[in-house]
Amino acid sequence: MKLILLDADMLVYRVAFACEQETKWDEDTWTLMSKESDMKREVVTFLDNLKDKLDSDIIVPVFSSSSNFRLDLWPEYKANRKSKRKPVGLKWLIGWVKETYLGRSLPNLEADDYIGIMSTEDPENTIAVSGDKDFGTLPVTWYNPLADCLTTTTEEEGSKYHLIQSLAGDAADGYSGAKGVGVIGAEKLFEKKGYTWNTVVEAYEKAGQTEEDALLNARLAYILQNKDYNRRTQEITLWTPKK
Questions:
Q1: How many other CB atoms are there within 10 angstroms of residue 8's CB atom?
Q2: Which of 54, 58, 109, 223 has the fewest CB atoms within 10 Å of its CB?
Q3: Can you give the pTM of this predicted structure?
Q4: 97 inside domain
Q5: Is the C-alpha dihedral spanning 120, 122, 124, 130 positive or negative?
């Protein structure tokens, strides 16, 4: 029976938003509310379905820490999300899931990194669960509940996708990649010139940027693996290209 490592950030946000209810009290007054019982029910239903789908009842919900090492690299990382409204009851729901299902987190790491570290430590006996496409960079078995898709990514496939992300950037996470190069353009460029760090650097320099810009984007796009994290000291080894 495999260990399921669940991106609980994704779960609580989606559940909390789904359970919001608008109420119109009179001709002038609207309120937005949620019921704790509804949120509990949605979480339990999701987890029960996940257990059936992946044939395991060992689930560890993983949450992001309030601190994030990527902000030390790039203060604008995910800055675009700060202005977005959080769903009603989110803070309560996070606490309930952590207490009920023994949710975990590690200082200075996102949920993605914690899952990446754990799943690459024992890829044969773990399944990463998230709707985040960045999990395609990890050489693990990954279930995307939004697409209902279970895949096992090889190390080569993960490395290739990381290079694509490094070149194309990710607007949702606040880093833009090489100017004028999107995902499709990046894929075409790699197919033509090869999936190498030199291809990435050349594209950045052609766009009037530098290798330092390329390295920053690559580090922001990279999900930590077991080899990148010292559990005793909590030290992080930043991604470095193979040349």
A1: 27
A2: 58
A3: 0.93
A4: yes
A5: negative
